[in-house]
Amino acid sequence: MSVRILFFGATAEVACTRSQDVDVAEGELASSVFESVLANHPSLAAHKLFFSVNQQFATGGEIIRDGDELAIFTAVSGG
Amino acid sequence: MSVRILFFGATAEVACTRSQDVDVAEGELASSVFESVLANHPSLAAHKLFFSVNQQFATGGEIIRDGDELAIFTAVSGG
Amino acid sequence: MDFAELTSQPLDIGVIARRVVPPECGATVTLDGYARKFTKDKTSGEVRETRYLEYDAYEEMAIMEMQKLVEKAKEQFEISNVGIVHRTGRLEIGETSVVVSVAAPHRRAAFEACEWLIKELKRTVPIWKKEVYLGGDHWVEGEN
Amino acid sequence: MDFAELTSQPLDIGVIARRVVPPECGATVTLDGYARKFTKDKTSGEVRETRYLEYDAYEEMAIMEMQKLVEKAKEQFEISNVGIVHRTGRLEIGETSVVVSVAAPHRRAAFEACEWLIKELKRTVPIWKKEVYLGGDHWVEGEN
Lengths: 79, 79, 144, 144
Hints:
The complex is a heterotetramer, with 2 copies of chain A and 2 copies of chain C. Chain A is an alpha+beta fold. Chain A is built from 2 helices and 5 strands. By secondary structure, chain C is an alpha+beta fold.
């Protein structure tokens, strides 16, 4: 089972990619998926991060399903 | 000694003119000039009126000088 | 740049909003009034379809009064620049009658100043609106 | 008509303001944000001259979040129509980055809703700004 992780702005620059597919376990929580991505990109920890699951702001308690779209980003700065 | 009276919008329509020159006496007050103009255009009395002397809102107590520009108009409705 | 103008030409609110912008500001608030199609008569409550509008202005005094409003707004609010342009003459339905645009370092002040300016403009600037509808016309008298 | 859009093309605030206008309304309030030339660094207080800006957006989510704001604004305020358009990609100094335009029967509600919308947009819509100045660049992180 696999999900896609998206990065934007500062996180895309730090991760050196805008998108990455990762394997996840059945019933895995979003928080666990995000933690493993952060472990692979330790410099992301320098930023205050926000998360989304399927284009909704995520708290981490979401149960991840195959094909879900996750994202990691810094505090928004549009306008 | 003479002054010019201007009319705009509704008052111009009622007075059938946008401008009228009237003779005034030395030291005459604006209120007296306006009253005589209104006496000549009685239908103006149907409206709530405002007055100006030399492009300033007038109270009537202004002493009129030769060549002054006076105006009579209804409550403004721009915007 | 501040400005207070009358014009018988169509108004471009984008151009007006841009003229008030100094390089150190990041936001402009713009109020855009326009000729509406349907008007409710304040006395009868009847809704009328307007054909077009006509604005008459005491031009010299109107510009002075608008300039006074610009000065007062700049005293009362922390804003950088103000532009006011009012259209005169005949306006077709949907055309812009007035634009009030305020640039400020912080948008709160821009919102406050813009709202204050349009309120005062409607109350004090010698401009009058005639509504022309099917079968008649009517010079609107303000509430002031 | 309501709308919430992203575009990489230049924004025309006059056109956007006009798209929100229903025939029974007489006023629109428009907030216009743009790429400013000078930016003060929040930490150092140093003033930098920006060369250009770049906006990145999580497009699908940004549009959904903007649509949510439009819905919430229409619940909270007595307004007729709302339009939000945010620019993406590279913006030269002075170009418009965002336009929020609100039409309402009474202008008070339009001012309130417009101010609320831009505040919430800056807080919740997934769009990020990079400032590019002489000798470097910097992704701005919001205060949220």
